[in-house]
Amino acid sequence: MSRVYNFSAGPAVLPEEVLKEAAAEMLDYNGSGMSVMEMSHRSKWFEEIIKTAEQDLRDLMNIPDNYKVLFLQGGASQQFAMIPMNLMKNGVADYIITGQWAKKAFNEAKKYGNAKAVASSEDKTYSYIPDVSDLNIDDDADYVYICENNTIYGTKYHTLPNTKGKTLVSDVSSCFLSEPVDVEKYGIIYGGVQKNIGPAGVVIVIIREDLIPSDDEIDEKVPTMLRYKTHSDNDSLFNTPPAYGIYICGKVFKWLKGKGGLEAMKEHNEKKAKILYDYLDESKMFKGTVVKEDRSLMNVPFVTGDKELDAKFVEEATKAGFVNLKGHRTVGGMRASIYNAMPIEGVEKLVEFMKKFEKENA
Ligand SMILES: *Cc1c(COP(=O)(O)O)cnc(C)c1O
Questions:
Q1: Span of 148-152, 242-246, 303-307, 329-333 with lowest mean pLDDT
Q2: Set 56, 171, 294, 310: catalytic member
Q3: Which of 157, 161, 216, 290 has the fewest CB atoms inside 10 Å of its own CB, making it the most exposed?
Q4: Of 68, 166, 195, 229, which is the active-site residue?
Q5: Alpha-carbon span 270 to 293, nearest angstrom
């Protein structure tokens, strides 16, 4: 059996050590005589799994005690609705539109209240992060919303917006745990785990407690399952959680701790991304599509400028074991997603392959 180098944007590569451990525990988890998929979410084994996962995440991110950690379902996309439903007390929110995910969140919020776009980079196919130092934030805004790492376009905020004292809400799906963050700068940090943490089916929401509305404060029509309070009061066990996914996330948290935590991850990710960006900057054939100062460490889109050549590259790369490099249809070309679990040698070998391809097709 041979594993490929998987550059998928998501669901994406997971650490091999984690997959092997999960395989070894598949038939008998910790003496239970069953797999984690088969056990009650109220069992002592699962209780331990979810508690440990939460604690390890708290340790990794330095999450203060006044923040709740929720393991939910519905993906990041369900948060596009839950956020306005729970946070729009004044009915106003400001959105910064840096790509399709931010735009989808914005459109969802508009269904619920007065959502306004206060900045956008749509004019240049979202290839940069707009100036967010002095935005026209509404006095009544309940929150300011960003998508911190734009999976499709390959941009990342390297400075958070000046929210003028308003609560910051951030979708970190594709940069979750890729580097240290200061949780206290945010009201909500959330993300689907299938990009940089675990299997699809889990979304993690880190929310400051005072933002969770009580049943008196929230619109009575908001369904029980879409209230943060429901999940917060029940430690993510109001109903059956995505148990196997949480178990794998827990293993990834341990793996990250073993690697030295998020500082070490940042160093690893910077080193890894630099190999690819340096080559893109010197190549005569391949070009990065993002302005340099806003580049993501996780998603790297690039093009040759010639659609046929792009297609030829993707085809030959796939045959050579570098898979899922085709770019998003709105950007074209290629995209290499190089999440935490992508080893440095995966990027080194990809660049070697690109150099060879450039020489052969010059
Ligand atoms: C993938 C992605 C989403 C959508 O995630 P789902 O879990 O499929 O709903 C939202 N935001 C970002 C930044 C993403 O990368």
A1: 329-333
A2: 171
A3: 216
A4: 195
A5: 14
Residue nearest to atom 12 of ligand 1 (CA): 173
Pairing of strands 334-337, 287-288: unpaired
Ligand 1 mutation target, pool 101, 156, 203, 331, most atoms within 8 A of CB: 101
Taking 90 as the threshold, does the pLDDT of residue 1 lie above it?
no
* Residue 300: how many other CB atoms lie within 10 Å: 24
What would the pLDDT profile of 263-322 be if each residue is shown by its tens digit? 999 999 999 999 999 999 999 999 999 999 999 999 999 999 999 999 999 999 999 999
195 is known as an active-site residue: yes
CATH superfamily of 5-15+259-360: Aspartate Aminotransferase, domain 1 (3.90.1150.10)
101 annotated to bind ligand: yes
User: Which token pair is 290?
Assistant: 């993002």
How does the average pLDDT of the chain come out, rounded?
97
Q: Measured between alpha carbons, how far is residue 93 from residues 52, 114, 137, 164, 220 in Å?
A: 35, 6, 9, 13, 20
Q: Which residue ranges make up each domain of the chain?
A: 5-15+259-360, 29-258
Residue 255 annotated among the catalytic residues of the structure: no
Tokens encoding 33: 């005589």
CATH architecture of the domain with range 29-258: 3-Layer(aba) Sandwich (3.40)
Distance separating alpha carbons of residues 338 and 6, to the nearest angstrom: 9
